[in-house]
Automatic annotation (TrEMBL), chain A:
This is NADH-quinone oxidoreductase subunit K. InterPro entries: NADH_UbQ_OxRdtase_chain4L/K (IPR001133), NUOK/Mnh_C1-like (IPR039428). It is found in: Cell membrane; Membrane. It catalyses: a quinone + NADH + 5 H(+)(in) = a quinol + NAD(+) + 4 H(+)(out). Gene3D superfamilies: 1.10.287.3510.
Automatic annotation (TrEMBL), chain B:
Pfam families: Proton_antipo_M, Proton_antipo_N. It comes from the Bacteria. The chain crosses the membrane at residues 6-23, 30-53, 91-111, 123-141, 147-165, 177-198, 218-242, 254-277, 283-304, 311-329, 349-370, 390-409, 424-445, 466-486, 506-527, 611-628. This is NADH-quinone oxidoreductase subunit L. Signal peptide: none annotated. Keywords: Membrane, Transmembrane, Transmembrane helix. Its main location: membrane. It is found in: Endomembrane system; Membrane. It comes from Phocaeicola faecium. It is a multi-pass membrane protein.
Amino acid sequence: MEIHVIHYLIISTVMMFCGIYGFFTRRNLLALLISVELMLNATNINFAVFNRYLFPDQLEGHFFSLFGIAIAAAETAVAIAIIINVYRNVKQVLTDDITDLKG
Amino acid sequence: MDYTILILALPALSFLVLALAGMKMSHRVAGMLGTLSLGIVAVLSYMTAFSYFTAERTSEGVYPTLEPWNFEWLPFTSSLHIDMGILLDPISVMMLVVISTVSLMVHIYSFGYMKGEVGFQRYYAFLSLFTFSMLGLVVATNIFQMYVFWELVGVSSYLLIGFYYTKPEAIAASKKAFIVTRFADLGFLIGILIYGYYMNTFTFTPTEEQLMHAGMVLPWALGLMFVGGAGKSAMFPLHIWLPDAMEGPTPVSALIHAATMVVAGVYLVARMFPLFIGFAPNALHMVAYVGAFTAFYAAAVACAQSDIKRVLAFSTISQIGFMMVALGVCTAADPHEGGLGYMAGMFHLFTHAMFKALLFLGAGCIIHAVHSNEMETMGGLRKYMPITHITFLIACLAIAGIPPFSGFFSKDEILTACFQFSPVIGWVMTIIAGMTAFYMFRLYYGIFWGKENKELHEHHTPHESPLSMTFPLMFLALITLVAGFIPFGHYVSSNGHAYDIHLDWSVAGTSIVVAVIAIALATWMYAREKQPVAEMLAKRFSTLHRAAYRRFYMDEIWMFVTKRIIFRCISTPLAWFDRHVVDQFMNFMAWSTNAAGESAQPIQNGRIQSYTQWFLGGIVVLTIILLIF
């Protein structure tokens, strides 16, 4: 079976909605972080695929994927630092208990 | 004449130094600094006057109008601009001499009078500020500069009346003076704006074309300016602030509320005189009627006052009324035919400044000796205070119009001018001059003759004041003795040409006879220990006496007008509108913003996931919108 653009998009869509679902339902901050990674990688796949199929002689989409990966790495580092600090302060990483920033 | 700038700069500088660093100085240094700078200013003023009046007249036979300094301060258009500068012409030079002389005498006098007072340095700083403002007013090159200094004079008057700021009466008096004069200045300002708007200039000497442009509006502008002048010069019914202003230190009353500031209104009319006489003779005659009524009213009130400074205050109002009448009765610019009053008014301004300052300073010595303003506590002081007694008597004779004292000559010119205008005004003013002699000698006998206040003398014998206080008295008395012989008409006259003062003996004789009768009457009534006639009259006409004592209820009438009519009918509804409509609208705005915030607040619940749900919802909505359109 030939692998067509639609198959890639199905995978990325499934990943995207898994991420969104995970972000809404999970209560653990680390699980939220993993969900965000899923969403980011779904978009990276989209960039690479559209570049590959629509503009095969150009590289912008690939570069955007690389950017996305770098930003995801940086974001993960910052987020883990925040989570560690939150844990040190409130001894908790569940979102239900971290509501101090309410208006 | 470049040095004239120093006349303005020195008092300004001494004010700055005394105001900023005065509290660090000793009383002596601060006083010396102020007096020294004023001394230099006085010398410079005399030099200016000497070189100005000895210089050549122009080919038309008048003294030239000089402008040694002038710079454009605020340009609006090519012809409409506000300048700051120095203008020298006969009346401004004459005023320089008057102001610097009286101010210097008051500075010297205050050394003795204010000795040891708290705020001595502040007092000298304010005196410097006042002198600066007053000098700036008289040398103004245009009407707007005059207005600027006019307000500065008002502020310094306010500060000095309220000098004893721990006394509630002084605070009330200073506020009253400021508000009443400021209210009148509103008229002045509107007059200036009309003048500037229609004439396109602020100068005193507009061109023919500019005058054509103004046309019918000019009399209104001049009339409104006179309202401002009437406020400063305490013309009826805006005179109510001046008697209360006597709450200030007595030397201040001598300087500001007798000799200089209160004649600013007269000076203003004299300054605008060419325009008045040329384009608004009716407005000028209004000035005369207002002046005559004020002179009569104030003289009547002065006859019944018991506070010596109040008597002098009403006498000042009355005499300023004389000057206004003198200016107002002019019918032409030529002093030989109807323009005599201008010269007479200016002459009276000059002589009055000297002898009225002398009277106030003398009153200061008396108050200093007996520690009271009331005439009942005095009496028989002539033995204890010989210098004050003699100088006070000279001033009384001068104001009563007895030759050869200066007041006789100037008042006689005024009466002559009045008779030329209309015999009715002439006779009215002659009678008022008689009243002047009467109340002044009532005051004189009440202070220096009559019954001695033994009770007071037992624990505190009155004594003559120190030399710093008696020297100004003697100096001013000397001027009062000789000033009448100055050929004043040679220097100042309505069209600038030299005018020889010649006494009209029919007028002069009448006024002398009236004055002598009035003095004799006062002697008969008040010179003895017991005063049966005066008491009988006061009892017989008790309503009239009480009315005169209460100043014919003018303060009460003003209170009624302001409190009952203006406050109740205008201010209260305005306050209601402000509180219930304007404020409430603002309150509603604040309340609705707050309520919107309150209702949006539950969304901010601190749960990340609920935020993201809103976020996702937003994205979905935006996507749908994009898909549809």
